[in-house]
Every structure is written in structure tokens, then in C-alpha cells.
Amino acid sequence: MARLTRGHVSAVANEQLSGKQLVALAIEVSDYAVAPHSRFHVGAALESEDGIIYTGCNVESDSYGLTICAERVALTKALSEGARSFNRIAIIGIQYDENGVPAKQEHGITEIDGLGPCGACRQLLWDHCRDIEVIGGTSNGEVGRVWRLANLLPDAFHIDR
Ligand SMILES: [Zn+2]
């Protein structure tokens, strides 16, 4: 099992993590979400080709449009540490209420059956990761849905490098 170390590179696995283990890392890092406006805490765990897991949480701004998603935090951490090839990313979201406890809602954003990345993140992930596996985790730690990024962003824009 990967050991989670707070702060920088998130985990190094000796053997490939299960999807559920990757979701668990995404849930753990979502504790650090800075989301005073939405109270929607998102965590992402991006696995590089050599088995390093880079995690990220969402960081909101008082100027709402400047908010940065968890996926892009994980991606930029990875790129800034030299990673260039990736296998998978797991994403989860947990809605908290005004008292800081996970919200129970009729239509259950907490029970969401697999959170997918927003459009901007799909493009950034495509730019740097190409057709990776995307694991939409649930807030209770299950693998909800699994996609290929090419299916989430068909006919994606890119410039050949
Ligand atoms: Zn996003």
C-alpha cells in the first residue's frame, strides 16, 4: 500500500494501486480543499507512468472565476516535479454543509456515483496526459465510473509537438 506523505509528492507505490486505493488517496487529499464558497471539496490522485501518485484539491478564490480544480492542482504538481507520462486519475467530490459535515441531500451530490472532470480539466489533462483512464470515485470510497479521457473529450483539440 502506498504511503501518503503530506505536502509534496503524495505517494509512491511498490505495486500498482487498485482503483479503490487511488480513490482513497483522492478522498484523503480532499481534506485540504480550500472551498469556503461552494463547500464542495474535491480531491484528485494522478498516477504517473512510474507509479508516483500526485494529489491535488480544489482551491477557490474570492474572485470565483480564478478557482482552480483539484485535477489541475494534481497535474501541475506532477508536471512541476518532472513527470510527463501518466496512467490514471481518480477524482472525488464531497459536499459539506454550513456546519462542516458531509451534506445529506435529496439528490445526493454526496452520493454522486462517480465525479468526472469539468471541461477545462478535460482539456488540460488531454494536453499533458492524453488518453488516460479517468476514475470517477464516490464520496464513500468506491470506484463509481471509469472512462477513457478520449471518451470524455471526443475529437479533442491539440497541437502536435
Ligand atoms: Zn476542473
Strand order of the largest sheet: 1-3-2-4-5-6
Strand content: 15-25%
Q: Which architecture does the CATH hierarchy give at level 2? A: 3-Layer(aba) Sandwich
Number of domains: 1
The number of distinct helices, counting runs of at least 4 residues, comes to: 4
Enumerate the spans where pLDDT stays under 50 for 5 or more consecutive residues: none
Molecules bound to protein: zinc ion
Number of DSSP strand runs: 6
Secondary-structure element pattern, one letter each: EHEEHEHEEH
pLDDT averaged residue by residue:
89
CATH class: Alpha Beta
Radius of gyration: 15 Å
The amount of helix comes to 10-25%
* CATH homologous superfamily identity: Cytidine Deaminase, domain 2
Distance between the termini: 36 Å
What does this structure look like?
A hairpin with a 5-residue loop joins strand 5 (133-137) and strand 6 (143-148). The protein has one domain (11-152): Cytidine Deaminase, domain 2. Strands 1-3-2-4-5-6 form a six-stranded mixed sheet. The mean pLDDT is 89. The chain starts with 10 loop residues before the first strand and ends in a 9-residue tail after the last helix. The protein contains four helices and six strands, in the order βαββαβαββα. The protein is of the alpha+beta class and 161 residues long. Zinc ion is lined by residues 69, 71, 117-118, 120-121.
